[in-house]
Automatic annotation (TrEMBL), chain A:
Organism: Microbispora catharanthi
Lineage: Bacteria, Bacillati, Actinomycetota, Actinomycetes, Streptosporangiales
Domain of life: Bacteria
Protein name: Uncharacterized protein
TrEMBL record, chain B:
Keyword vocabulary terms for this entry: Transferase
Lineage, top ranks: Bacteria, Bacillati, Actinomycetota, Actinomycetes, Streptosporangiales
Keyword check for Transferase: yes
GO MF annotation terms: glycosyltransferase activity
SUPFAM superfamilies, per the entry: UDP-Glycosyltransferase/glycogen phosphorylase
Protein name per Swiss-Prot or TrEMBL: Glycosyltransferase
Superkingdom: Bacteria
Origin species: Microbispora catharanthi
Pfam families: Glycos_transf_1
Domain Glycosyl transferase family: 202-357
Amino acid sequence: MTSRHAEVEQVWPRDGRVLVIGRIVGTAPTPPARTTAILTLTNRDRPDLVLNCPATVDGGRFQAAFAVELVVSAVATRRIDGRQVWDLHLRLPGEPEPLRLGRHLDDIPDKKTVMTFPAQTGEARAGAVSVKPYYTVMQNLSLISRPVQA
Amino acid sequence: MKLRYLIMNAYGVGGTIRTVINQANVMAAADHDVELVSVFQTRDRPRFSLDPRVRLRSLADLRGPRRRHPVREWLRRRPSLLVPPSEVRYAAFNRLSDQKIVRYLRSLDGGVLVTTRPALNLLSARYAPRNVVRVAQEHMYLRSHKPELVAEIARWYPRLDAVVSLTDADLAEYAALLDGSRTRLATIPNGLTPAERAPAALDGRIIVAAGRLTRQKGFDLLIKAFAEVVAEHPDWRLRIYGDGREHGSLRRLIHRLHLYNHAFLMGGTTTLEQELAKGAMFVLSSRYEGFGMVLIEAMAHGLPVVSFDCPHGPADIVAHGRDGLLVPPEDAGALAAAMKALIGDPSLRHALGDAARTSVMRYDMDGIRQAWERLFAELLTGAARVG
């Protein structure tokens, strides 16, 4: 856990989308009210493969939603096979370092097994791909994408 | 007093084991001569802490590699001839335990023998000498047993000196079944062991539940009821403590009802006291219980409780509207309504919680120990007069 991070409060994988709600915590300047930021999904094995979606930041709170198609199409067009992990960050305007999304400020130790989320499936030409948010052993928020066996 | 507690496996984890070890501990601390006898031994030490004054022995030691104990393994593979197949734990007994238990029972001479599950109660009735005061404990309730086992109970329990139930309602069932026998019937609930119990966080927004993740505990009903609660009170959370074979299906239910931000399967915990103290209310959603000890533990923290009025225990423990809320069993809608009533009325939470902390003092371990001592003394006196 760094000195500053994006503390996740709710994750809603629903209706083909993933909505993440939380707040920015830690030292350093509070971002201005009602600004636009970027939620990034970084492929853990290919750090140069980064997917972006818009996020809103307001008074220290953030919210971002993306369609699972964002991940499904990225996997399909690059013909990436197998299980992929995507790490989520929030990139604030004017800040060099993106903030890792995670959940560190409660008393629940083992989120990887306690706070779990359903997978959602998107269709690609090569077949269906499932996308599932999960907390890592470091209590950070990531996604797993994997082909669905027909 | 010379007290012998016979238990199936003192080395496991579970409600009966914990309760029996608590009883043995408290009796030994009161200077009685206490021996805890475990039919099976599967580990080097019991999981629950045992007072050093309690002597622990086992009858069938199952530790060590199978091929080094060919006779033991041969006997272990043969099904029990003495335990009725209708006993829930029939499959765990075998020819080895038959032999060891009978030999042990026949070796007894005087004192009190307390047996702790139907198979052992039946064997005590059949094989323990008449100069031993034989007391059977019911840790579930009579009607939870299969009819074939109830028939065995009706046949053999009249030979026992006493049958002890956890609730009056269950005792009435035993009285009807054993009508005409001279067996003494008594109700003695489980005692609350002394522990550090911090006052609960009644102004927080956490609902706590705890128990094995099995169908018996009704967590499926609780999760459905909680979905109704969240629709009106999205800032409340549900934490369910425990492990069990329903983990996967309960998790799928949480996902299907979109409760993944609100309801959490927390896993087993060895520090339930600390977790109870984080709650603003406790919910017991069981389809049935032997007693519902966890309700008493929750109430000792000053937690307001909502419980199904299921057999057996909750109605003995909770006075509806005074120190908790009882709702009709398996009625998820009524459970949700009661939770919403407590959420909407913090002063009710405090009033019920305060009353709960006081009312469970009647389960204080000292009082329970005295109830056992009175019963044993009465039975020993009766035995001396007769014999």
